[in-house]
């Protein structure tokens, strides 16, 4: 794993690994790198991630865009997760069961109240599977992760 601060690792554990119910879908994602408004992770497409065609479900892809871009936002001061205002995903190709995918999120702009993030989901050959855009409302009154 690339250099990742202890605080970012703790936020990753809190947001991705300890989730119950719906959030548990991300428990096997592995953090590759994070910091300065970025977050990159990888995971293998498993049975509970796929649709009837045995490819990565569109809803799961949207969940990855939401969760990993939120982690990228948490990696910037003031370390707030924000609340989704808009999320869109362009689906470019399927990822079959067993495929290792990479999710790479970046904060494009963090403003006073709105943050704009982008996410690329690629397969093991680096081909783009999906691309997401995520807008989040951030309030300074919002609690910091882990408080």
From TrEMBL:
<comment type="function">
    <text>Catalyzes the hydrolysis of acyl-CoAs into free fatty acids and coenzyme A (CoASH), regulating their respective intracellular levels. Has acyl-CoA thioesterase activity towards medium (C12) and long-chain (C18) fatty acyl-CoA substrates. Can also hydrolyze 3-hydroxyphenylacetyl-CoA and 3,4-dihydroxyphenylacetyl-CoA (in vitro). May play a role in controlling adaptive thermogenesis.</text>
</comment>
<protein>
    <recommendedName>
        <fullName>Acyl-coenzyme A thioesterase 13</fullName>
    </recommendedName>
</protein>
<comment type="similarity">
    <text>Belongs to the thioesterase PaaI family.</text>
</comment>
<keyword id="KW-0496">Mitochondrion</keyword>
<dbReference type="InterPro" id="IPR006683">
    <property type="entry name" value="Thioestr_dom"/>
</dbReference>
<keyword id="KW-0443">Lipid metabolism</keyword>
<dbReference type="GO" id="GO:0005819">
    <property type="term" value="C:spindle"/>
</dbReference>
<keyword id="KW-0963">Cytoplasm</keyword>
<dbReference type="GO" id="GO:0005634">
    <property type="term" value="C:nucleus"/>
</dbReference>
<feature type="domain" description="Thioesterase">
    <location>
        <begin position="54"/>
        <end position="129"/>
    </location>
</feature>
<keyword id="KW-0378">Hydrolase</keyword>
<dbReference type="Pfam" id="PF03061">
    <property type="entry name" value="4HBT"/>
</dbReference>
<dbReference type="InterPro" id="IPR039298">
    <property type="entry name" value="ACOT13"/>
</dbReference>
<dbReference type="InterPro" id="IPR029069">
    <property type="entry name" value="HotDog_dom_sf"/>
</dbReference>
<dbReference type="GO" id="GO:0006629">
    <property type="term" value="P:lipid metabolic process"/>
</dbReference>
<dbReference type="InterPro" id="IPR003736">
    <property type="entry name" value="PAAI_dom"/>
</dbReference>
<dbReference type="GO" id="GO:0005739">
    <property type="term" value="C:mitochondrion"/>
</dbReference>
<dbReference type="GO" id="GO:0047617">
    <property type="term" value="F:fatty acyl-CoA hydrolase activity"/>
</dbReference>
<keyword id="KW-0539">Nucleus</keyword>
<keyword id="KW-0206">Cytoskeleton</keyword>
<dbReference type="GO" id="GO:0005829">
    <property type="term" value="C:cytosol"/>
</dbReference>
<keyword id="KW-0007">Acetylation</keyword>
<comment type="subunit">
    <text>Homotetramer. Interacts with PCTP.</text>
</comment>
